[in-house]
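Escalation from tier 1.

The customer reports that the assembly of two entities below gives different structure tokens on two consecutive runs. Tier 1 could not reproduce it. I'm attaching the input and our single run for tier 2 to review.
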Amino acid sequence: MRTTTPTHDFVRGIWKENPVLVQMLGLCPALAVTNSVANALAMSGATFFVMSCSSVLISTCKRFIPHEVRISAYILVIATFVTLADMLLQAYAPVQHKELGAFIALIVVNCMILGRQESFSSKNNPFRSLLDAVGTGIGFTIALVMMGGFREILGTGSFLGVSLFGPNFEPWVIMVLPAGGFLTLGFILLAMGVFEQRKEAKDEQVTEVLS
Amino acid sequence: MSDQSLFSIFFSAMVVNNFTLAMFLGLCPFMGVSARVETGLRMGLANIFVLVLTAISAWFLNTYILEQAPYLRIISFIIVIASLVQIVEMAVKKLSPVLFRQLGIFLPLMTTNCAILGLAIFQTNRGYGFLQGVTFAVGAGLGLTLALVLMASIRESVEFSDVPGIAKGTGLVLIIAGTLSMAFMGFAGLL
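Tier 1 run:
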């Protein structure tokens, strides 16, 4: 039954099955809070915490959760950790807590977290679930910081609040507005499509040469 | 208690701060069931229904139960929403099996639709009363429906045009959404 190695569990979520860019899960936070890198980092940190904790807890308790009510049980576990994350952020990063606002509570309905519990933690031991959650969390962070970086650099001409281009830079205000979120993710996906196509073309060439 | 007028709440939730295009709530159904106008419209109507029910129960919870225990807010909202969605699912299955098949997985997924939990949280944060909450829900639901129908009609016409291979699929949908969102920015500052 077990076909993957622990390393594979860990690496998979980072790029090859990246939750945001490949599986299109967790789009709401990915688009809504990435208007600056700092917000993207706070959001990924909170999601990372919630996902790792709930993965470990759920895979530990999986024997006691009846199959019929598992989804509700998962949601309850996730909601508990989200409440914790909400309070922690409020205590230690009040600025980010204010900026993110309702989107911290909305981590509960991030399909990525529920998806990992349903497809991985409910079938594997705590250690591997933790690896899987950490890998997916890193993938989520990469996607969010990438989008936040593009949007902040183009939209305000700064990175993490440090001005990059001097005072003569005319910011592309559209990039920090909602429309910019859709456009940034759209263009990232288009760029990934170009790479995929090139890779496929190369693979075909190789098989032709070999045959 | 917020003292915003009902009209301004309604209009703001519907177009100025459209849930999907300006606040990125409810993107999963927006991407998933926006291929046909008919399905999009029905999904939107189902959404309005659940949103209004959520607004009523969130108001009830806030006023009578959560005053003593505000830290239970997220947990209790999500339980109420999950059971509401379950009830709506059963009702739709019984009343209109065709619609049930068309909406497919997106009906149970409404539990994890950020628009619904988002509505309950925003309503609480802004301190809306009962009438204001319901108006907010109807406005937000109509806004979602509007976005879904607009998106679906654009996608229906794009289907027959010749798009480059790399742009087929989600990439194109996101760019269209970006353009729509830009159009909705025209409403900013109206209220």
